[in-house]
TrEMBL record:
Role according to the record: Phosphorylation of dTMP to form dTDP in both de novo and salvage pathways of dTTP synthesis.
Reactions performed catalytically: dTMP + ATP = dTDP + ADP
Species assigned in the record: Actinomycetospora cinnamomea
Ranges where the Thymidylate kinase-like domain occurs: 7-157
Segments forming a coiled coil: none
Pfam families, alphabetized: Thymidylate_kin
Phylogenetic classification of the source organism: Bacteria, Bacillati, Actinomycetota, Actinomycetes, Pseudonocardiales
Oxidoreductase recorded as keyword: no
Keywords noted in UniProt: ATP-binding, Kinase, Nucleotide biosynthesis, Nucleotide-binding, Transferase
Family under the similarity heading: Belongs to the thymidylate kinase family.
GO CC annotation: cytosol
Name of the protein this chain belongs to: Thymidylate kinase
Keyword Heme appears in the UniProt entry: no
Amino acid sequence: MGVVVAVEGLDGAGKATLVGALADAALRRGAVVETLAFPRYDADVHAGLAGEALHGAHGDLRDSVHAMAVLFALDRAGAAEDVRRARATQDLVLVDRYVASNAAYGAARRGEDVDGPFVAWVHALEVERLGVPVPDAQVLVRVPGELAAQRVRDRAAADPTRTPDGYEADAALQARCAAVYDQLVERSWLAPWSVVGAEGDRAEVTRTAEAMVEFWLSGSSRCDVASGSSVRSDTIET
């Protein structure tokens, strides 16, 4: 039975880079690893609709916090069997964005905190009703909002096909979302959390990833060494 780890954070935080470092660290240990990423814009019709709405399509669909959250939840529900299979057959399953993203972004859009009704609604919808598997551990890539926003702009400048969507372009939303993520960490919402911080270099990213993988594969769901880690945000790319 493998360990499912969800990597969370703002748009532009560096989740994909951390997922890659974690996968490499696990492979060096001889582990069998699988990676997944949500939303699956090109593979799931619900995610595709949500992605189009984020870029202005489908009328006022984007205006409904709950409607968008349902689409993202249905995307994960459609992959639930894949997650269960991977957990049963792999040593480590790394997921770039998961249920906590829905909770954080939706609560932030509604101006709520972790104790508001939206976070509880997401849990009831995704976990209790749709049966989305609960991760064994979660990692928050915590970066300053201005750095994440600059990364999104740089990414768009380098690739005209990756124009910022409605969430990425909303700096105030990103700031509120960061606050909700911190609250989710404090409450150990859904599963234990570790936090990757904002100092260090690429070598430190590798060392932190190796320490986290060692903890998870040795049977621990929370890597204490990562909670105060010093991974510098400007060295991590999404």
